[in-house]
Amino acid sequence: MKKLLLLGLIVSLPLVYGCGPKEDEDFFSDEDFVTQSVEEITPQERIDQYREILEIDPDDYQIRNNLGVVYAQLKLLDEAIAEFKKVLEKRPDYTTAWLNMGSAYGDKGDIDEAIKCYEKAIELRPDYAKVYQNLAVAYYEKEEFQKAIDFFNKFIEMNGGKAEQSTYYPLADAYRKLNDKENAVKYYNKILELNPNDEWARSQLENIDQPLTDQQNN
Description:
Largest sheet: none
Mean pLDDT: 84
Protein name: Tetratricopeptide repeat protein
Number of helices: 13
CATH architecture of one domain: Alpha Horseshoe
Keywords: Repeat, TPR repeat
Number of strands: 0
Pfam families: TPR_11, TPR_19, TPR_8
Distance between the termini: 13 Å
Organism: Candidatus Auribacter fodinae
Low-confidence stretches: 12-37
Order of helices and strands: HHHHHHHHHHHHH
CATH class of one domain: Mainly Alpha
Oligomer: single chain
InterPro entries: TPR-like_helical_dom_sf, TPR_rpt, Ycf3/AcsC/BcsC/TPR_MFPF
């Protein structure tokens, strides 16, 4: 099974990464700053810029969230989590920070804490589709496959019935682990629709009737 990445961080600059709920009026969208942040400066320079802003306004939760994102991208996960916690001390209803902190915990291997963060994000914002995807991955990592399936399907439903290969891989595998071959085949084929050359999905289809223990030993 391909390695899954729990880290799916959302920065308060939706124009940078093309993600995050753009309708959220709290999101920062200075296009000049965005362009500079992406094209001209290093991660350390971004950290320095964010810190300079926070020295002037330590309550700027969006900039602090972004600082946490950069730390997490650099795998400085404890530092990232500390920044997200500071954000949530000021804005406990900021779902993006709950999602980001969950992603950082997940990347750190603390799946239970990740799940708590995702559940809080859903409590605050039940229509935040990305959280359901991350929660599904967390349960997949815990080998709680039925819960993973339920949350993957919820994410796909909220996403207009569509998903990327990164969602279909663990979803197909979760069905396979539960011996639901019909649905496993369905999602192996979804992967191949997106990428006809995907060797993993093709191999799984070819060996669908072979016991999983035999496949793992091969």
